[in-house]
């Protein structure tokens, strides 16, 4: 069991620390494999068969197939690695950000406007300790 971290009480925060690294190792190695054109082609041809090459958990595998970006982060994915899946799908980082925003995703236009308006509001995104006192 690891020691508590300062960031443990910030809602929706998935810090890629040593624990996340270990948990997501195989998921991230799959993502890194998508650096190669031939790997991307094989993945597009038969996603399930390609994923069989990597000893991911069933939950990690399903998150990839569902393109559940937040779940991939929860399961140890590194955002920069998991983005390689989105890039393989022809999606921008903004598409991924929109899918992970607003409690159930938001449209790309809504996400862009939120960013132009100064980003995500702080309410609900502070540490639980700050929410109690402020």
Concise account of the structure shown:
The protein is an all-alpha fold and 134 residues long. The protein has 9 helices and no strands.
Instruction: Give the overall silhouette.
Output: flat
CATH first level of the largest domain: which class? Mainly Alpha
**Known CATH architecture of the largest domain:** Orthogonal Bundle
Report strand %.
Answer: under 5%
Q: Find the CATH superfamily of the largest domain.
A: Dioxygenase LigAB, LigA subunit
* Rg on CA atoms, Å: 16 Å
Query: How many discrete structural domains?
Result: 2
Average pLDDT over all residues: 86
CATH fold group of the largest domain? Protocatechuate 4,5-dioxygenase, Chain A
Given as residue ranges, the uncertain stretches (5+ residues, pLDDT < 50) are none
Q: Terminal Cα separation, in Å?
A: 31 Å
| Main β-sheet description | none
Count of DSSP H/I helices: 9
Number of DSSP strand runs: 0
Instruction: Give helix % range.
Output: 55-70%
Compressed to H and E, one letter per element, the order equals HHHHHHHHH
Q: What structural category do the secondary elements indicate? A: mainly alpha
